[in-house]
């Protein structure tokens, strides 16, 4: 089984907006490699930037991935994650019936991420 991880972000018109997500992708990829995990790590966007989630997953499947986890790099479960993402994943599953596709919760709802954001906010007072 070939694994892949897709960091799924919103997208924006300004190319510079993607920089933190590209850094996150590079950091995750480096950690995956440091742990000798066999897992492709890619970045996909909902809109305004490329690749889209379906295009990114099509490419991963073409490279042999059959177990893909999507991590929404969103602060919370808003309309995009409640409506748009399920529609996208339904279409992806229909296009790739043998694919194991897992979508985890929004990154901003993770307790560890919340703690890191809390600490950042407190440090901003200094």
Structure, described:
The chain is α/β, with parallel strands linked by helices. 44% of the residues lie in helices and 19% in strands. The chain has a single domain, classed as 3-Layer(aba) Sandwich (Rossmann fold), CATH 3.40.50.1400. It has a four-stranded parallel beta sheet, with helices on both faces.
First and last CA, distance = 48 Å
The number of helices is: 4
Strand arrangement, major sheet: 2-1-3-4
- Alpha-beta classification: alpha/beta
CATH class: Alpha Beta
Let me know the average pLDDT.
96
Largest sheet entry:
4 strands, parallel
Please compute the radius of gyration using only Cα atoms. Answer: 15 Å
Count the strands? Answer: 4
Keywords: Lyase, Metal-binding
Pfam family, one: CbiX
Protein name: Sirohydrochlorin chelatase
